[in-house]
Specification:
8-stranded mixed β-sheet; disordered N terminus; 191 residues
Length: 191
């Protein structure tokens, strides 16, 4: 009986250590699609998509998983073979990638929203999914509550998203009401 109980405890602990693997069934070699526009510095993408970065991997880009852990996901962009690494310090990679391109919802967006998403703009009335596709994962979903510690479902359930310019400075606060952008408060303006 003690052996069975010990085995079950070990099984639970091992399962809890890798929520991303269990939740998403991602394996090395899998093809995924970027859930949002991802901002890049060199070959590195940071979990909070800092606005100061100018290089973009567009939403819906096909990628191939090369390696991953609960802290880093290494992938190559299929059309260019360029290798990147996402530093997320979490197993919740579903905020950045989807298995099926249709899951992003680009085909359901109006032409004006699609243009905003392509140009990484935010507008009042956009849905949470549209904001996520355009601006990426927010740095915080509440003051001091880092998004990296939350699943995409928890992020989408929050009505307050903070985006950062860099690792310290705020860019904007997006408030949602009834699932759509109600206000966008700018902290810093780019020139």
């Amino acid at each position: 009986m003690k052996k069975i109980l010990g085995f079950l405890i070990c099984l639970c602990l091992c399962g809890c250590a890798t929520p991303f693997i269990k939740a998403s069934d991602v394996k090395i070699g899998n093809t995924l699609f970027t859930r949002s526009n991802l901002l890049v510095k060199g070959d590195t993408i940071y979990y909070h998509n800092m606005r100061i970065l100018k290089k973009v991997i567009p939403v819906g880009t096909e990628v191939k998983v090369l390696n991953f852990s609960n802290h880093v996901l290494v992938f190559s962009q299929v059309d260019t073979n360029k290798m990147y690494r996402l530093l997320a310090e979490t197993g919740y990679y579903d905020k950045y990638f989807v298995k099926n391109k249709e899951d992003i919802g680009l085909d359901k967006m109006s032409p004006s929203v699609l243009e905003d998403v392509k140009n990484m703009k935010l507008e009042k009335g956009m849905t949470k999914e549209e904001v996520l596709a355009s601006y990426g994962c927010p740095a915080y979903i509440g003051w001091g509550d880092e998004s990296l510690r939350h699943s995409v479902t928890e992020v989408l359930n929050s009505n307050t998203w903070y985006y950062n310019v860099n690792s310290r400075k705020r860019d904007c606060l997006v408030r949602f009401k009834n699932g759509a952008v109600e206000t966008i408060e700018q902290y810093w303006r780019r020139r």
